[in-house]
Known about the structure:
By secondary structure, this protein is α+β, with helices and mostly antiparallel strands. It is built from five helices and four strands, in the order αααααββββ.
Amino acid sequence: MAPSIVQSPWFTRLVLPVIAAVLIDGLSEALKTFGTFIDSTVSLVVLLQRMDWEGAFIVIMGIAALAVALYFALRSFAKYESENLAIRTAVLVLALILVGASHMWPVIFDRSLMHDMYGEINPGKTTLHDIDRRFLADWNKSISFHSDDPTDRCTKACSFAFVYSVPKLFREGEMTLKFGADKTILQKCWSYDCDPK
């Protein structure tokens, strides 16, 4: 006789797939990061000479931890699943869409770092060289240049501005750094509070 599936409240049946979706999404992000890391390393032909082995080890350990957690989570959740495959699939797909639509991983790993680095910027002292040296290259950034239109970001003494996308759950904010002609920061602003300077 086949073992009977343990019946559980609908709340449990909905929460457990969300946990699985978080683990699946996290594992996917870790694997993409590792793939990008390997691709850039191999393409530069520096696999043995200058490879960041410490960074690679951390990513590999993260992948292993997420994979093990997902295995045990799916194994434990099986007893709470509905007998209807269509329902199980629909709930997992909806959970993956919900997790995928959020910026959960960038919020966890990037937002606090961006805020800390923003706090260390001193207008009039911090230069473009300091920003290039300390800010991560893979942060989403756009550049705007001087304009006489007062509605633009970079007017008056501003020569050019970096606008970084700051991750929030289900939306994005902005961090703007305005530079003068001498490549020194004139003004910094978090979100949309920049005055035209």
